[in-house]
Design goal:
Elements lengths: L1 H27 L3 E2 L1 H13 L12 H4 L13 E9 H4 L1 E10 L19 E3 L6 E2 L13 E3 L4 E4 L13 E3 L4 E5 L12 E3 L4 E4 L13 E3 L4 E2 L22 H5 L2
The structure holds 2-acetamido-2-deoxy-beta-D-glucopyranose (6 copies).
The site of one 2-acetamido-2-deoxy-beta-D-glucopyranose (NAG) has 4 residues, from helix 4.
């Protein structure tokens, strides 16, 4: 009899201990990047021209950067930010990706769409070529695109109005060409628009008048012609000076 009670006690003790251990492990395990996004990071890195990506080094949301083997120039930035509130704080999704001044030689990755919670992408000061992938327009949460100081070329995407929720579009110091599409006037959430130091031509579309939330607008060092639309002086929020100089100055009459 006492033997049965004793073994029941042992059983109870064993079960309690293992439940407690499991609970403790569960509570201590850190939130991890969603496996689909981990896989997407490999594709994104490859398109950006990153050859030595080490995803075994630690969870990107935990170490808050991409473990890559590239020269870390002064001023380089490598930042991943995540929202880890999913699945009872067990799953993270990437909300920000900044890879700045890292001499990346590839292209802007269309695979970014596989990070549907991404709000901010900055790939400033690299050697990226090609143009802005239209695929990015299907990312409802993408509000900031910063791709200045690269080797991007071609016209701005014609379907620009599909980038509905953009507040920041900074494409300065690239080789973009052609006219500014009329549709840019549909991006009414824009607070910052930097088109400076490219090869843009034509006249500034009057649809720009609709961008009443602009605080910072830069178009200098392009090949625009025609008249500077007068509404530009009337944007209520505008804080930065619009400097129109060098090549532009010559063609304005
Ligand atoms: C929650 O986790 C499961 C298993 O990893 C995953 O399939 C699912 O997509 C996650 N949900 C969210 C919202 O991340
Ligand atoms: C956009 O972000 C919100 C809030 O983080 C989220 O609920 C929603 O699922 C995201 N959209 C997509 C397509 O993931
Ligand atoms: C994006 O824009 C759509 C349509 O304009 C809007 O319904 C949605 O709430 C916006 N999403 C975010 C995250 O701002
Ligand atoms: C910039 O892109 C052009 C093609 O668009 C290419 O010929 C040139 O070599 C690139 N320059 C650099 C520095 O990558
Ligand atoms: C976008 O802008 C163009 C030209 O300004 C306009 O004709 C069109 O109706 C707009 N589209 C949307 C979806 O707002
Ligand atoms: C804009 O630039 C002019 C000339 O450089 C300067 O006098 C003026 O104070 C500037 N305005 C603002 C708001 O910075």
């Amino acid at each position: 009899m006492s033997m049965i009670i004793f073994s029941r006690f042992i059983l109870f003790f064993t079960i309690t201990t293992s439940v407690l251990t499991a609970l403790r492990t569960w509570a201590a395990s850190p939130a991890l990047l969603h496996p689909d996004e981990l896989k997407a990071l490999e594709e994104i890195a490859s398109t950006l021209g990153i050859t030595k990506l080490n995803l075994g080094y630690g969870d990107p949301c935990d170490i808050k950067k991409l473990k890559i083997d590239v020269s870390q120039d002064p001023g380089s930035e490598n930042i991943i930010a995540c929202d880890c509130s999913f699945n009872n704080s067990r799953t993270c999704h990437i909300t920000e990706l900044t890879l700045k001044t890292l001499s990346l030689p590839g292209k802007l990755p269309p695979e970014l769409v596989k990070l549907p919670h991404l709000r901010w992408i900055s790939l400033v000061r690299n050697y990226l070529s090609g143009t802005i992938p239209m695929e990015w327009a299907s990312m409802p949460n993408l509000t900031s695109i910063l791709v200045g100081a690269n080797n991007l070329s071609g016209p701005l995407p014609a379907g620009l109005q599909n980038f509905k929720n953009l507040t920041v579009l900074a494409v300065e110091a690239n080789q973009f060409s052609g006219p500014i599409p009329d549709e840019i006037g549909n991006l009414t959430s824009l607070t910052r628009l930097n088109l400076g130091s490219n090869q843009f031509t034509g006249s500034l579309p009057t649809s720009l008048a609709r961008l009443v939330n602009l605080e910072d607008f830069r178009i200098s060092d392009n090949r625009f012609n025609g008249i500077i639309p007068s509404f530009i002086g009337e944007w209520p929020q505008l804080k930065k000076n619009i400097s129109i100089c060098k090549r532009t100055e010559r063609t304005y009459s």
